[in-house]
Write a structure and sequence with these properties.
Elements lengths: L7 H27 L7 H36 L16 H13 L2 H20 L2 H17 L3 H19 L4 E3 H19 L3 E8 L3 H5 L2 E3 L3 H13 L6 E9 L3 E8 L6 H12 L17 H12 L4 E7 L3 E9 L9
Parallel strand pairs: 2-4
Antiparallel strand pairs: 1-3, 4-5, 5-7, 6-7
């Protein structure tokens, strides 16, 4: 038995060969008719009938399966399904079949379900915390501290209330760079109550139009987790004073933010492991950091790539005894969906 035709492009190739054979036969019969070797014009109707039959064959053998495949691709592009993007009965070609296999690998159902479950758990946790109750309680503590003359306690309570308000209430994916910097400064202010003058924060913007740069939009909670990581794993572990520096610059199409510390740095083995983790795509962007309960650098990197693409994300460089640099590469986004 002949091998079953597996792909639509094979049918098209066979049909083209069949059509070429018919045209050649028609040409031969026309030459024979002109030379008088065959008599009667009915012989010329046979190739014409075959061509009409090939047209019917083209419609049912090629065009209808193609329409079905195109319909499935339209459903996929509209977000209805990613199943059967290559028609199981007659895929367009071998490459289309490989695309489906690749998509099944990237969009593994278990990963999608785990990511959705993790997001649902996070939203459930948010709903369990009544923001107004939290803010009102902290405001009450602040008022009592002010009445008692405890200005430091009042300032710390106000900073903590502002930090929670930003983290819990603001559920947008994107915020302005100015908002993210303000939240980071507020977080660092809270940390200074613990470390005092042992740490300093410096923010530098290398651009003439600073107001425009501050209006660029970035994922919420991008800077603060990295600053937290620098403090816990870099500056807290060293003796003496430490400096955290946020350096902001732009290119024609990108916003580049470098967060640096002059802490203890990373061993080469730790840095290599970090690079491997940053290079792996994952849906587990809500995973908790196993070391100190904050949002890990890997999670920040995954969120950026999921929002903007694989060409963006984090790059980490470090040297023992010198410090660590974390470069954040983002598009120059000036709105929720608009990029420069």
């Amino acid at each position: 038995m002949a091998r079953r035709i597996q792909y639509l492009d094979e049918r098209i190739a066979l049909w083209m060969i069949f059509l070429a054979a018919q045209l050649f036969a028609l040409l031969i019969m026309a030459l024979l008719y002109q030379t008088g070797r065959i008599q009667g014009s009915l012989w010329l109707l046979l190739p014409l009938a075959l061509m009409v039959g090939s047209g019917i064959l083209l419609h049912y053998w090629v065009f209808i399966p193609y329409k079905r495949t195109r319909h499935i691709l339209q459903l996929f592009a509209s977000g209805y399904t990613f199943e059967n993007i290559a028609d199981k009965r007659l895929p367009l070609n071998r490459e289309m079949k490989e695309v489906e296999a690749t998509l099944h690998t990237l969009l593994n159902t278990d990963q999608v379900m785990n990511a959705s479950k993790r997001q649902a758990q996070f939203l459930a946790l948010q709903n369990q915390i009544n923001p107004h109750f939290l803010y009102n309680t902290l405001e009450g503590i602040r008022s009592e501290a002010l009445l008692a003359g405890l200005d430091n306690v009042a300032s710390m309570t106000e900073a903590l209330s502002t930090f929670f308000r930003y983290t819990i209430s603001n559920v947008e994916n994107l915020v302005t760079l100015e908002q993210e910097l303000e939240n980071t400064r507020n977080y660092f202010f809270i940390q200074q109550f613990r470390f005092g003058n042992r740490m300093a924060l410096d923010v530098v913007i290398d651009d003439d139009d600073k107001q425009e740069v501050l209006s660029y939009r970035i994922p919420k909670l991008t800077l603060q987790p990295i600053v937290e990581n620098c403090i816990i794993h870099g500056l807290e572990c060293q003796m003496g004073q430490g400096l955290l520096r946020i350096h902001i610059e732009t290119t024609q199409s990108r916003l580049l933010v470098t967060i640096s510390d002059d802490g203890v740095g990373m061993e080469s083995s730790v840095l290599e492991k970090m690079h491997r983790n940053l290079s792996v795509r994952s849906f587990e962007y809500m995973k908790r950091d196993e070391h100190h309960g904050g949002i890990a650098l890997v999670n920040v990197n995954n969120r950026i790539k999921l929002l903007f693409g694989e060409q963006y994300g984090l790059t980490v460089t470090s040297q023992v005894g010198v410090g660590t640099d974390v470069l954040i590469s983002l598009p120059r986004s000036v709105g929720p969906e608009e990029t420069v």
